[in-house]
C-alpha cells in the first residue's frame, strides 16, 4: 500500500505533467469565471466608475501641493492663497473618503456574492460526480480546493482586479501630468516602462509558481488533518498521536517554507519597481 507521502508526490507529478499552456482557448475558458459576477454587474460598473473618480482626484494632490509651495515661497497667484488651497485639499479629502468607502462596498458585494455563487456551483458539481471520482480523490484535498482556491478568486475580485485598474489609471494619468509639466521627465518615465513590464513578467512567473506550490502544500496539510480526524479511532487505538502530530508539523513547516519564498519573491519585485522609478529620477537629475 502506498504511503500518504507517495500519494502526494504522485498527485504533484501528475499535475506537473498535465499543466495547461496559456493559449487563446485556455484564456477564453478562464474568462468564463466572470460569468459569476454578471448578476452583480451594476455594482461592478459603479465600483469601476468610483475607482476612476478616486484615482483621478488623487492626481490633483501633487498640483495643489505644488501651488501651496509657490504661495509659501512668495510666488502668489492672484486667484489663490493658502486658506483657499487648504479648503480645496479638505474638500478633496472628504470626496476621496466618500468615494473610497462606496468603492470598497461595491467591490465587496461583487466579490462576496460572486464567490458564494462559485462555491455553490462547485459543490453542486462535486456531489453530482460518480462515486469512482471520490474513490480516486482524497476528501481533504477536495475540501482544500473548494475553500482555499475559491479564496484566491475572492482576492482577485475584491483586491487584485481593482488595484490593477487603479494603478493603470494612475500610471496613464501620471504620465499625462508629467507630459504637461515636462516632456523630458515624461520620456524618462516612459523609458523605464518596458523594463518594468519585462521584470514584471519574469517575477510574475516566479511568484505564480511559488503561489501554486503553496496551494499544493496547503492542500496536503488539510488532507493530513482530514485523514487524522476521520480516522481518530484508529489513531487512538494504535497510540499514533505523536506520529500524526509530527507528520502534520512537517507539512506545516513545508507550507511556511514555501510561503516565505513566495513573500521573498514579492518583496524583491517591490524593490525592483522602486529602484527603477527612483533610478530614473536620479538619472534625470544627473543629466539635467
Gist?
This protein has helices at 4-17, 24-31, 41-58, 60-72, 82-127, 131-136, 139-181, 183-230, 232-237, 241-287.
Indicate the CATH topology of the largest domain. ABC transporter transmembrane region fold
Low-confidence stretches: 1-18
CATH homologous superfamily identity of the largest domain: ABC transporter type 1, transmembrane domain
The rounded Rg comes to 26 Å
Tell me what you see in this structure.
The chain has 288 residues and is mostly helical. The protein folds into two domains: 35-181, ABC transporter transmembrane region fold (Up-down Bundle), CATH 1.20.1560; 182-288. 86% of the residues lie in helices and 0% in strands. The chain has ten helices and no strands. α3 runs antiparallel to α5 (82-127) and α4 runs antiparallel to α5. The longest helix is centred in the C-terminal third of the chain and has 48 residues, at 183-230. It is elongated. The model is unreliable at 1-18 (pLDDT under 50).
Write the SSE topology.
Layout: H1 4-17, H2 24-31, H3 41-58, H4 60-72, H5 82-127, H6 131-136, H7 139-181, H8 183-230, H9 232-237, H10 241-287
Name some characteristics of this structure.
288 residues; mainly alpha; ABC transporter transmembrane region fold; 2 domains; 10 helices; 0% strand; elongated; disordered N terminus
Amino acid at each position: 500500500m502506498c504511503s500518504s507521502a507517495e500519494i502526494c508526490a504522485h498527485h504533484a507529478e501528475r499535475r506537473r505533467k498535465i499543466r495547461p499552456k496559456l493559449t487563446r482557448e485556455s484564456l477564453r475558458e478562464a474568462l468564463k469565471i466572470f460569468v459569476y459576477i454578471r448578476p452583480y454587474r451594476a455594482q461592478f460598473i459603479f465600483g469601476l466608475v468610483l475607482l476612476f473618480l478616486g484615482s483621478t482626484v488623487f492626481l490633483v494632490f501633487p498640483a495643489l501641493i505644488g501651488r501651496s509651495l509657490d504661495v509659501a515661497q512668495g510666488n502668489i497667484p492672484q486667484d489663490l492663497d493658502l486658506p483657499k488651497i487648504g479648503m480645496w485639499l479638505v474638500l478633496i479629502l472628504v470626496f476621496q473618503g466618500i468615494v473610497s468607502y462606496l468603492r470598497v462596498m461595491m467591490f465587496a458585494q461583487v466579490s462576496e456574492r460572486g464567490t458564494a455563487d462559485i462555491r455553490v456551483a462547485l459543490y453542486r458539481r462535486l456531489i453530482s460526480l460518480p462515486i469512482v471520482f471520490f474513490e480516486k480523490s482524497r476528501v481533504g484535498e477536495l475540501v482544500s480546493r473548494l475553500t482555499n482556491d475559491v479564496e484566491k478568486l475572492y482576492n482577485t475580485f475584491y483586491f487584485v482586479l481593482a488595484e490593477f485598474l487603479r494603478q493603470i489609471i494612475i500610471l496613464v494619468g501620471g504620465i499625462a501630468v508629467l507630459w504637461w509639466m515636462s516632456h523630458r521627465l515624461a520620456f524618462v518615465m516612459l523609458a523605464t516602462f518596458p523594463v518594468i513590464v519585462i521584470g514584471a513578467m519574469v517575477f510574475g512567473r516566479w511568484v505564480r509558481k511559488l503561489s501554486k506550490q503553496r496551494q499544493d502544500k496547503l492542500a496536503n496539510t488539510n488532507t493530513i488533518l482530514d485523514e487524522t480526524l476521520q480516522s481518530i479511532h484508529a489513531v487512538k487505538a494504535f497510540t499514533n498521536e505523536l506520529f500524526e502530530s509530527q507528520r502534520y508539523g512537517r507539512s506545516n513547516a513545508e507550507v511556511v517554507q514555501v510561503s516565505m519564498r513566495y513573500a521573498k519573491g514579492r518583496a524583491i519585485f517591490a524593490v525592483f519597481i522602486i529602484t527603477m522609478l527612483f533610478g530614473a529620477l536620479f538619472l534625470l537629475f544627473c543629466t539635467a
